[in-house]
Every structure is written in C-alpha cells, then in structure tokens.
Specification:
The structure holds two protein chains of two kinds. Chain A is of the alpha/beta class. Chain A is built from eight helices and ten strands. In chain A, helix 4 packs parallel to helix 6. Chain B is mostly helical. Chain B folds into two domains: 83 residues, Winged helix-like DNA-binding domain superfamily/Winged helix DNA-binding domain (Arc Repressor Mutant, subunit A), CATH 1.10.10; 77 residues. In chain B, a hairpin with an 8-residue loop joins strand 2 and strand 3. The chains are: A alpha/beta, B mainly alpha. At the A-B interface, helix 8 and strand 9 of A face helix 6 and helix 7 of B. Chain A: This is ABC transporter ATP-binding protein. Chain A: One of its GO terms (molecular function) is ATP hydrolysis activity.
C-alpha cells in the first residue's frame, strides 16, 4: 500500500515537472536501413530514465540524437525549450560541452592523458585554468573512490577503475543531463553495481538527469522509469505510445 | 524434508536450544518477511525427534513441552550435510504462466506484446523496489535481494527473447498467417 501511494505521489510530481529534454517523432536512417521510425521520449530534470530494447532496436541512435551527436532526418529534439536539431554542428558541440556528460561502455578516455588530465579535460575545454580544473578533477576522483589512479594512464587501470574515471569526467563540468550508454556493459556484477551506485549518487547530488541506455534489467532497475525501443519505435507509457 | 526442518536442524549444530530460542534465531536470520509460528516450530521439532535427528537434551524445572531443550544427533548432522551438498532443483518459476498468457493472447487476437510489456513493467517495478531495499540494507539484505533480482532478471531476459520471437510464435500458432 505504501509503495502504491509513493508511486502515485511520484507520478503526480512527474506530471507537474516540465520536460528538460524531449524528442518528438524522430526518424533516422543510415542508407537504406531505418534506425528510428517515429521515436518520442521525454526526460525531466533530475530524472533517471532507462532506455531499453534489444540490440539493433535503435536505442543508441536515439541517445545520439537526444545528445545532438546525430541529427535526425525528421522530427524534433528540444532541450530547455530550444530545438537543438536545427543548431549548427558548432552550436551542438558547445551545448554538449556545457550541459551534457557522457559515459560509454568502452574507450571514451584519452589514452595519452593521465586519469586526472582526462577528468580535467571537459573543464579545460570550457576555458577553466589547468590548476582549478585539476583541483576539481581530483575531488571527483576522490568521490568516485579512484583518487589512487590519478597519475595513471587509462590503459594502466582496471575496467572498474576506468569506468569510475569516466563517470568523474562525465560529471566534473556540472552537466544537466548525463547520457550513459551501457555504462556497466564491460564490468562484472560487483563493479557494475558500484559504478551505478556512484553514478546515481553523484547525479542526485548535482541534480543531473540520466538517460541510461541498457539491455541489462538489473541496471535498468536503478532508473525511475523505463522507455522501451523496438524496431526504431518507442513505447513510453507516459506518452501513451 | 521441508526447508524449515533442515534450517532448524542446522541451527542446532551450534549447540542445544529451546524451541523459543530456535524460533528467534530463525526469524532473525531467515524470517525477514515470514517469521515462524510457534506451532510450526514445535511440530517440526517433534517430527525431527520422531525421526531421530534431534533429542531432548534437558527439561527445565516445572517445564511443559515448551521448556524442553533440543540437541542435534549424529544422524541429524549427517542429514544437514547431505542437504547442503544436494543442489536445489532449478524451478521454472513464472515461465509456464507467462507462456500460457502469451499464447492465449495470440490465439484470441489480443496483443501479446502488451502482455509482455505489462509484465516487463511489473518486473522492473519489483526490481526497483529490491534495488532500493538493497541500497539501505546490510549484507544479508543485499544477498537476499540479489538472489531475487537475478531470478527476476532471468524472467525479463525470457520476456525479451519471447518479444523478439512473437511473429514466429504467431505463425506457428496460426499457420495461415504470414511470418
């Protein structure tokens, strides 16, 4: 009974909160292959939204369109009431640096830089001076329990340590949305769990929303709600589609 | 023998106990949502006694049946060891019911995808609850919740696989329908 009341309270709060990021009727094809075929999704500030679906269903394409990495063939992506699909590549790139953070399954860290420099990078790219950027980076590494790898290159860390460094890098610049694409896909259960706990705790403290693409139900269970993508279409109970 | 019998027996390996102490030890460690009834404790102990797996170790002065102290016998210890060494039979859990629902939905022209989506949503709701409980719990809670989470995840993987095969299943149910 308590759970039901809580769910209802959460639902009504959710209805009152306007969308921070919204995709409407997205279509995207790569050559003759359609990847998105009328996908719509709504993300609210501070919400953790799981995007689920089988391999090849269009989950990652949807994430890339939401984040302004890809431009849809038709449909709209709105962030803070602004149509980001119509922005120039430079405009979208600036938005990604200032407002979005990214955690991927593999390879997002720059191998030539130390972990500390990797985490400081998003701040350096927005003009923060080295000393201040590295100070913040060190704090984030401590928070993610990997301060000891600060001076190592990514190749010298374990998978779990590397993903924590990636989470620190995604959050260091204070993004409003973190896009996480299979963030625990390469980790064992315990490491994956810890990365999710740390990612969620950090996002909750900073008020960032998380768009979590995953095919792992145990990872999706960290979300507030889920949207399912199948054959390029979304099934979002909230949008009635 | 039911799990309660084996559990009480194994708890007695730590030393003789009264029925009341056994119930308390059981509830504390395993009773989380379903504490034992006293009646169940005493009926289980009398069955163990009858089977020679426990013996009465002493009676306290003025004691009725509830004042008996029980100890595990050698046969009881052997029984616990055999139980622990024997793997549990994997259970099919929900699949039979869900399979029946999916097939019936297809047979009656309803949306089997909706059946699967509703079930996914319900499974995830339960998994969120367990994940939250795990986050606030001690190691015992975490291990118990993990067990439930992994089983629910197995069901969910089955749901996804079935969702991907719905067209094929529909064609097999109705051979006239194109696959």
């Amino acid at each position: 009974m308590t759970a039901t009341l809580t769910d209802h309270a959460t639902d009504s709060r959710r209805e009152e909160t306007p969308a921070l990021l919204e995709a409407v009727d997205l279509h995207k094809a790569f050559g003759p292959t359609p990847a998105l075929n009328g996908a719509s999704i709504r993300v609210r500030a501070g919400e953790v939204l799981a995007v689920m679906g089988p391999s090849g269903s269009g989950k990652s394409t949807l994430l890339h369109c939401l984040a302004g990495i890809l431009v849809p063939d038709s449909g709209q992506v709105r962030y803070n009431d602004r149509d980001i699909s119509s922005l120039s590549e430079a405009g979208r790139s600036a938005l990604r640096r200032s407002d979005f953070g990214f955690v991927f399954q593999f390879g997002q860290l720059v191998p030539e830089l130390t972990c500390l420099e990797n985490v400081a990078l998003p701040l350096r790219l927005t003009g923060v001076r080295r000393r201040a950027a590295e100070h913040s980076a060190r704090e984030w590494l401590e928070r993610l329990e990997v301060a000891d790898v600060a001076g190592m290159r990514p190749g010298e860390t374990s998978g779990g340590q590397g993903q924590r460094v990636a989470v620190a890098r995604a959050l260091v610049a204070g993004p409003r949305v973190v896009f996480a694409d299979e963030p625990t896909g390469a980790l064992d259960s315990l490491n994956g769990e810890r990365v999710m706990e740390l990612l969620l705790a950090a996002a909750q403290d900073t008020g960032a929303a998380i768009v979590l693409v995953t095919h792992e139900p145990r990872v999706a269970a960290y979300s507030d709600r889920e949207v399912v993508v199948r054959d390029g279409r979304t099934r979002d109970s909230e949008l009635g589609a | 023998m039911a799990i309660v019998g084996h559990t009480l027996l194994a708890l007695l390996e730590g030393g003789p106990r009264h029925g009341y102490d056994l119930k308390r030890a059981y509830d504390e460690r395993f009773g989380h949502d379903r504490p034992l009834h006293y009646g169940q404790v005493y009926s289980t102990l009398s069955r163990l006694l009858k089977n020679g797996l426990v013996e009465v170790d002493g009676l306290e002065a003025g004691g009725g049946p509830e004042r008996k102290r029980y100890a595990i016998t050698d046969a009881g210890i052997t029984d616990v060891a055999a139980w622990l060494d024997t793997p549990e039979k994997p259970e099919p859990y929900l699949q039979n019911t869900l399979y029946t629902k999916v097939v019936l939905a297809l047979m009656t022209g309803r949306s089997a995808a909706d059946v699967l989506d509703a079930q996914r949503s319900e499974h995830l709701r339960m998994m969120r609850e367990l994940t939250r409980r795990k986050a606030g719990g001690d190691l015992a809670d975490q291990l118990i919740c993990d067990h439930a989470l992994f089983h629910l995840e197995a069901d969910l993987r089955w749901l996804e696989l079935t969702a991907a095969r719905l067209d094929q299943l529909a064609a097999e149910i109705d051979p006239g329908k194109p696959s």
